[in-house]
Q: What sequence folds into this?
């Protein structure tokens, strides 16, 4: 089922330098073409940073979703089409190519699987991403580009290293390819009934025990075992997922594979999240003109219908409204926090009960609270810039990008000491160091105390607060350091 797109066949350039390693990122999303959160941000940013090094050429392959921008479809270049085995079925597969910001992107086309209103959440997601994982491998000979490393991300691509080891590794042109599997969030593992192993995934039942875990198919478990190396998105999270508290049942598998596990902290796109140039902001500013930041708060207050006051501390959350983001302790503490002269703005979607709670909170506190239950990147930029305090009290957080984005805009994070939050936000103490306010215990009292520390510094020690804002804006959250760590990691992978 081919998409309606320009179909001009194009040859990809061959390898320019013999010593440049070729890394193919295999992912289910990548901004700006398709994304639901942190995974899309990473796949949209990391390959650009790697390619600037000259030591790696990274390319990206993702599905061609319905959400691909219509105005960009005419710029897609048709490469080829093939059929892909999905168990007993042979499915159409088209391959398109697109270049943007120094990165070559490949898009896998099958309208039956990917022309849908959402990226995930369908009853046949297992089959959809089995097709995608198999298609990546079937298409590799048509890229005119010898892949050295297949770097796969999250459960949607977990079958790629599994299929590679089962069916491809001894055939030309697949010999010598290394596989890396990155865990962005271990909570989502790709678990399915064993009944569909042969009929949907096309894997013989004699291989069942290699991807079985706790009585069902577990694709992430299979990828951890089958991949040559594993990475995750912060050093602290790499240690945490070896424990029962954080591993969601996979601690034994990860401890068995601990020798091939590496934690590398993500970065953010510092061009997109630059208060000096971001067009969504009401007023642009930088670390040397933080007095302009308050204009963003005033305009945001007007936009949201809140009372206008430049000295009212505004607390913001931009998050998925799900339990592991700390929503339960926010719900316990928020009424006490709102007794203070503050404003509270939340942006996000998620579990229905949490969405209803924040809409009800807005009705209770008409002059203090605004809840926008939606996904809106333009509004997110405005909130990042307009707020003073950014609340991120996660129970678990593999890396987190929002705390870094908030710092880029000089909005000071209040975070729980876990995962990437611990690795990225040092506590500011009395305001003379660090980047934010950190609490350790996962309870509403600890979170409320950290928020009150932030409010107190903002209200009573404005000079120290301004120094903290400047430090946050100037903090280096670029991909440069992370990219260097990935380059070192890839060298180890290909040794």
A:
């Amino acid at each position: 089922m081919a998409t309606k797109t320009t179909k001009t066949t194009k040859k990809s350039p061959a390898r320019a330098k013999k010593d440049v390693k070729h890394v193919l990122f295999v992912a289910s999303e990548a901004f700006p073409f398709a994304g639901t959160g942190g995974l899309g941000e990473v796949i949209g940013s990391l390959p650009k940073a790697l390619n600037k090094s000259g030591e790696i050429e990274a390319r990206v392959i993702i599905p061609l979703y319905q959400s691909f921008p219509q105005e960009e479809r005419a710029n897609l270049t048709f490469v080829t089409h093939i059929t892909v085995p999905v168990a007993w079925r042979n499915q159409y597969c088209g391959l398109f190519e697109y270049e943007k910001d120094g990165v070559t992107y490949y898009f896998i086309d099958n309208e039956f699987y990917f022309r849908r209103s959402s990226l995930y959440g369908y009853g046949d997601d297992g089959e959809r991403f089995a097709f995608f994982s198999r298609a990546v491998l079937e298409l590799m000979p048509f890229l005119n580009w010898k892949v050295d490393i297949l770097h796969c991300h999250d459960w949607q691509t977990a079958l790629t290293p599994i299929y590679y080891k089962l069916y491809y590794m001894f055939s030309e042109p697949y010999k010598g390819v290394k596989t890396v599997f990155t865990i962005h969030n271990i909570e989502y593992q790709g678990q399915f009934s064993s009944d569909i192993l042969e009929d949907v995934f096309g894997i013989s039942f004699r291989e069942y025990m290699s991807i079985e875990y706790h009585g069902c198919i577990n694709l992430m478990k299979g990828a951890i075992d089958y991949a040559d190396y594993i990475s995750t998105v912060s050093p602290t999270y790499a240690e945490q997922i070896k424990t029962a508290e954080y591993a969601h049942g996979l601690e034994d598998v990860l401890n068995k594979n601990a020798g091939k596990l590496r934690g590398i902290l993500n970065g953010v796109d510092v061009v997109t999240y630059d208060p000096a140039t971001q067009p969504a902001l009401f007023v642009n500013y930088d670390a040397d003109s933080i007095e302009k930041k308050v204009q963003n708060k005033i305009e945001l207050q007007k936009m949201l219908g809140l009372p206008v006051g430049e000295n009212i501390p505004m607390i913001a959350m931009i998050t998925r409204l799900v339990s592991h983001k700390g929503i339960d302790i926010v719900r316990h503490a928020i009424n006490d926090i709102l007794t203070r002269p503050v404003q509270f703005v939340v942006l996000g979607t998620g579990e229905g009960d949490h969405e209803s709670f924040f809409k009800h909170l807005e009705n209770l506190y008409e002059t203090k609270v605004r809840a926008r239950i939606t996904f809106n990147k333009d509004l997110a930029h405005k909130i990042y810039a307009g707020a003073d305090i950014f609340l991120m009290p996660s129970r678990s957080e593999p890396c987190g990008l929002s705390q870094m984005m908030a710092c880029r805009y000089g909005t000071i994070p209040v975070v729980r000491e876990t995962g990437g939050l611990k690795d990225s936000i040092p506590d500011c103490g009395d305001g003379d160091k660090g980047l934010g306010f950190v609490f350790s215990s996962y309870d509403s009292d600890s979170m409320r105390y950290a928020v009150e520390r932030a409010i107190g510094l903002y209200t009573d020690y404005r000079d120290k607060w301004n120094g903290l804002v400047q430090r946050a804006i100037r903090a280096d959250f670029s991909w440069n350091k992370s990219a260097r760590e990935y380059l070192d990691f890839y060298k180890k992978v290909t040794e």
